[in-house]
Amino acid sequence: MLPGSIQISGETLSGAEIRDICESLRENSVRLLSLRGCQLSERDFGHVCRGVAESRSLAQLNLNLGIVSNINRVKQLAEALKTNRSVQSLFLHGSPLTDAGLALLNPALSIHPSLVALDLGDCMLGDEGINLICGLLPPDGAKSGLASLSAPGLKELTLSANPGVTSKGWGRLAIAVAHSSQLRVLNLDYNPLGDQVAGMLAVAVASSRTLEVLDLEGTGLTNQSAQTLLDMVENYPTALRTLILSENNISPELQQQISDLLSEGEEEEETEAREVTAREKNPWICQNNPSSQMVLMTSGLGDSLLAETEM
């Protein structure tokens, strides 16, 4: 076990273990708490939630694989998140949340001051749940006035394996992604999206100024949508650096063409970054050349996000 982390998987937790976890949370000595797939009583789940509420050090909370198994637990987690101010990444993958559960959790998510990564994969969500999630992707210019009451906006969102969402819901998400001021990573793998939804997402990616990673593995795509994505990558400047298309009915040639174009864009960006760094060290270089003005792009989610992404 790494310092500052508690990681337990697939075990039945005793009352004594729960007390130790809660004590560590209250002492602010835990940065990562992962209880994925563990069994614990309703009472002990409540104790953990109270510990989460009191913790000022907890940055990542992993309750994947059925920990939040009923509405009562959703309510307790929501109350904990209303008080907590430190959690940056919340993983609920494989929880039977449903739209009703997300509706209970959403008020806490929408005002949390630190939350930037959310995993709701395989949570039995439908279109209503997607509508709520869109509210966590604030568009440019939408945060004035209520900024102090709003979440910072998600930078990483996972919605894998939610087959109850229809093309209408995915279309609504595509609009939110197109205008999001923050989102950098979007995982939609193993949803039955098809070519129509992929076309909407291509428009969203072309419009987004921040999206760097899009995972469409196993989403029922064909060469038709791959060609649309290829045209998007080839003809529109985007922030996209990684597009995952495996487990689809797409020819290897098309996948390779898309990958090559994304790699070329990344290499050009790195070259521009080096030139910017050189000019910062020597401000006299290219001082009179208007074309030397550039924007330095960076990849990754920064130091605020932890590396752990287990499901």
UniProtKB/TrEMBL annotation:
InterPro entries assigned: Leu-rich_rpt, LRR-containing_regulator, LRR_dom_sf
PANTHER family: LEUCINE-RICH REPEAT-CONTAINING PROTEIN 34, LEUCINE-RICH REPEAT-CONTAINING PROTEIN 73
Lineage: superkingdom: Eukaryota
Gene assigned in the entry: LRRC73
Protein name per the record: Leucine rich repeat containing 73
UniProt keyword list: Repeat
Transmembrane segments: none
